[in-house]
Amino acid sequence: MKILSAEFIKSCEKPEQFPRDGLSEVAFVGRSNVGKSSLLNSLLHRRGLAKVSRTPGKTCTANFFRVVTGDPLLKSFYWVDLPGYGYAKVAKSVQAQWGPMINGYLTERQELMGILLLVDARGVERHDVATFAWLRTLGLRVIVVATKVDKLSRAERRGSMVAIRGSLDVPGGTELILYSSVTHEGRDELWRAIRKLLSVES
Fold first, then answer.
1. Sheet bearing 76-81, strands edge to edge
2. pLDDT above 70 coverage of the chain, percent
3. Total number of domains constituting the chain
4. Which residues of the chain fall short of a pLDDT of 70?
5. CA distance 139 to 107
6. Rounded CA gap, 32 and 58, in Å?
7. The domain that contains 104 carries what CATH number?
8. Residues 6+ apart with CB under 8 A from 103
């Protein structure tokens, strides 16, 4: 995928702060420290566009990144990096604000075309299972991305995919992609899946 430009636009704490230019959006959802920012940087061939932290819960707002590609079916769209669910080293008062904002975004945002649900390739947790089930009830199109696959051996990867599909109860038509933000394994495959989400022909 040829990336013509990629830039951070804004961080939003409230729905009224979301962009209003009508561009299509793909959101990153996943538990704290699963690697959302690293994945975004890897997909866009950038090192520091999305800030990466070893501290769980670093992302406390909905962060919008505008991407322009050379693909006529993608053109310009937004990545939306949502706060991680589960454990986060932030005040409880801040965590309490995440729920309504994320719920409102996922249930009401007309520009939202699909979700990248990030899970750790080494195993899913109860938050992942509950989130995937919830996204399905909302009728959202979801791509499951198993991150940090570089930490698994080749022999372990097939078992990881089977385990993730079983734990999440992933239906056959839902894509499950193994990804490494270190080696960029899975990048081309994931871009093809994203293209399907954003294509006007899908």
1. 3-12, 62-69, 76-81, 25-30, 112-120, 142-147, 176-178
2. 85
3. 1
4. 48-60, 86-98, 200-202
5. 9
6. 8
7. 3.40.50.300
8. none
